[in-house]
Amino acid sequence: MTTKQQSRYLAAVISTVMLFTLAKTYTNPLEVSALEDLHKSLNNPQQLRGWRFEGGGDPCGELWIGVYCSGSSIVALQLRGLSLLGSLGNNLHRLHSLKNMDVSFNNLQGDIPFGLPPNATHLNMAYNNLTQSLLFSLPLMTSLLSLNLSHNSLSGPLANVFSGLQIKEMDLSFNNLTGDLPSSFGTLMNLNSLYLQNNRFTGSIIYLADLPLTDLNIEDNQFSGIFPSSFQSIPHLWIWGNKFHVEPNYKP
């Protein structure tokens, strides 16, 4: 098949998929209401001018900007780097089928919503100006694998809400988080990568001692106490800028 024929074939396939989608999908109304609330909370941005809610709205059938679907269910929101202003609203928990949400590199403000998409596997809210750190809906998010809240304005201590999670990567770096690490960190037995640098955490890191970490960055905090020699097995480790008492056998 020539390049020209391949191009025609690909165009035909895309057209067929689009026609099938338009003919067969009508987005779950509960999920549409979540997007409508999000749209209003973002001050009806011009960047999302294709989001139309007249007559109920059908983001899956109409191929809205940043919205990806499987059948009539929204499975991904990719709104990275669109200079969006405002907040995330209060109805993200209605997106039951959502797996991936990326709203990083915007100008979002206010609290992280009390209810997040309950079945999400990847959440990226980095590089915004979010201010609330208490993620009360986390215990319900048993499918979550990756959480990135870095480079925000989160403050205060972390709530003890991490028990039972299957998360593999978590980035809370470059915020204003304070206090000791919660004991539920010690239950994160699938956690491979943890980034806590450039906060104001205090106290011990003992709850991290038995985790299967390959990447750990805790630089520029106020951690103290014994720095366990078992951490020598972590391939990528950054610890400077704290107040540890390093065990005699530790070799950096």
Automatic annotation (TrEMBL):
<keyword id="KW-1133">Transmembrane helix</keyword>
<dbReference type="Pfam" id="PF00560">
    <property type="entry name" value="LRR_1"/>
</dbReference>
<dbReference type="InterPro" id="IPR032675">
    <property type="entry name" value="LRR_dom_sf"/>
</dbReference>
<dbReference type="Pfam" id="PF08263">
    <property type="entry name" value="LRRNT_2"/>
</dbReference>
<keyword id="KW-0472">Membrane</keyword>
<keyword id="KW-0732">Signal</keyword>
<dbReference type="InterPro" id="IPR013210">
    <property type="entry name" value="LRR_N_plant-typ"/>
</dbReference>
<dbReference type="GO" id="GO:0016020">
    <property type="term" value="C:membrane"/>
</dbReference>
<keyword id="KW-0677">Repeat</keyword>
<dbReference type="InterPro" id="IPR046959">
    <property type="entry name" value="PRK1-6/SRF4-like"/>
</dbReference>
<feature type="domain" description="Leucine-rich repeat-containing N-terminal plant-type">
    <location>
        <begin position="31"/>
        <end position="70"/>
    </location>
</feature>
<keyword id="KW-0433">Leucine-rich repeat</keyword>
<dbReference type="InterPro" id="IPR001611">
    <property type="entry name" value="Leu-rich_rpt"/>
</dbReference>
<protein>
    <recommendedName>
        <fullName>Leucine-rich repeat-containing N-terminal plant-type domain-containing protein</fullName>
    </recommendedName>
</protein>
<keyword id="KW-0675">Receptor</keyword>
<keyword id="KW-0812">Transmembrane</keyword>
